[in-house]
Amino acid sequence: MAIIAPSILSADFTKLGKELKDIDDAGAKWVHIDVMDGQFVPNISYGPIIVEACSRATDLLLDVHLMIERPDQMIPAFAKAGADLICVHAEACTHLHRTVQLIKQSKNDKKNPIKAGVALNPGTPLSAIEWVLDSLDFVLIMSVNPGFGGQSFIPSTLEKIRTLDQMIKERNSRAIIQVDGGVAPDTIFDVAKVGTESFVAGSAIFNTPDYTATIQGMLEKINQAKSHGD
């Protein structure tokens, strides 16, 4: 089943609770929470307090994307705040396997095990996650350079996603592919066609007047892509 994960980086924080309810009603499955530290990426966003607020406001799964240096130091805090999934960047982890295991050994505020993901920037090869793939629940392919919302999709990412999909199938891995960056109604068909199962979209959803129409339109294009095949 396709997963739409709206990124609250583009939400209206003066009414965050309503925004979460609206995307839930519109058909989203996860809410994507981009955490930026001003070091790994140029911008600073928010910390565990926002995850905790989202946990109280919605039953959507909280998909926490740590775009930060030394993520090991912050994983326990985000787990305690209510994260259901935590994704770290391969580029930020000195001991990636250890970091992935730390996520998987953590439990959130509901005492549920946390799913582990690793993100790869556009210039990072798939070989960076090859030897942890069997431990992962998902791999996040960045289709823009991280740090800013509203960027345009990088077309060469499609071949990277296709190759990752083949790698997952060959390894009989349970990991799914998530894509983040420039995912919008005009790109989502191509992104879905190459094996993506989780789609992060921020401005493409929150900058529209009708979240239901936008999300349902995206899901329809995903279904068309999946039935179309290669």
UniProtKB/TrEMBL annotation:
Amino-acid positions noted as binding a divalent metal cation in the UniProt annotation, renumbered to this chain: H32, D34, H65, D180
Catalytic activity: D-ribulose 5-phosphate = D-xylulose 5-phosphate
A GO CC term attached to the entry: cytoplasm
Pathway where it operates: Carbohydrate degradation
Function statement: Catalyzes the reversible epimerization of D-ribulose 5-phosphate to D-xylulose 5-phosphate.
InterPro entries recorded: Aldolase_TIM (IPR013785), Ribul_P_3_epim (IPR026019), Ribul_P_3_epim-like (IPR000056), RibuloseP-bd_barrel (IPR011060)
Name recorded for this polypeptide: Ribulose-phosphate 3-epimerase
Gene that produces this protein: rpe
Residue ranges of the TM segments: none
